[in-house]
Amino acid sequence: MNKRYLPISIVCGVFVLVLVGNFARQAPSNEIPVRLRLENKGGSVVFTHSRHIDYVKTMGKDCAACHHDMTVTQKDPLPCGSCHATEFNTTFSAEHQRTLPKESCTKCHHAEMGTIKYDHDTHAQSYAAACTDCHHSPDIEAEPQACKNCHGPAADGATPALRDAVHTRCQSCHEDMYGQKMAGCASCHNFLPGTSEAKQPPCASCHYESDAIPMPARMESFHGQCMQCHEQAGKGPFGDKSCKRCHTR
């Protein structure tokens, strides 16, 4: 070998050894990223994932402190963008139905994911002294009929939406179930996560009363999650004037 190239060869060899050493040191973290680059309009954010894992552990918490879709610690959490969209539109709706695991559907799509545990004869015999305890009096409906015959998916003038009408009427008798809040839903609703029968209803079937989206968009979810944690810890970037501590511009 020409001696002119010896120093270059030595430098290249050292460089290769450093790369191999770094790779070997990080090999166990292939499934858990060391750092992530989050692209956005406010300037890319380089997020040091490994450092945050250490912080979370010192606070006595686990991965679910940030990855709230988890029930137990796992190495393959859902990407935040699977649920928190940049924009909630038809493209996002179609894509997340294709990519999300079926067992996660009930995190957003709750009551409609299962059949209703309701027996009319049992209710008539055990709960109602008269039909008008559940149905309207003759001045509104001449004969008792199905609620959906008058109540549609959305409110129409003075007529409330079907869901609101049924829940209001049921609550007048079942205060104990409603007192349990979400935990009481299973008293009537059969949840069917992970089954082929679990049809995805549109968000608007429940969230039609306003233009509010059913969950925070991606930017709001990141800001809320990150800033809240930093503010509780009293360190790191939080507050309206700390943008440049995360964003590159």
Structure description:
With 249 residues, the protein is mainly α. Among the domains are: 32-84 and 216-245, Alpha-Beta Complex (Cytochrome C3), CATH 3.90.10; 116-189, Cytochrome C3, CATH 3.90.10.10. Helices cover 32% and strands 2% of the residues. It is built from 7 helices and 2 strands; from the N terminus they run αββαααααα. It has helices at 6-26, 49-58, 90-99, 120-126, 162-171, 175-179, 218-233, and strands spanning 36-38, 45-47. Strands 1-2 form a two-stranded antiparallel sheet. A hairpin with a 6-residue loop joins β1 (36-38) and β2. The longest helix is centred in the first third of the chain and has 21 residues, at 6-26. The radius of gyration is 27 Å and the shape is elongated.
Short précis:
By secondary structure, this protein is mainly α. It has seven helices and two strands, in the order αββαααααα. The chain has a two-stranded antiparallel ribbon.
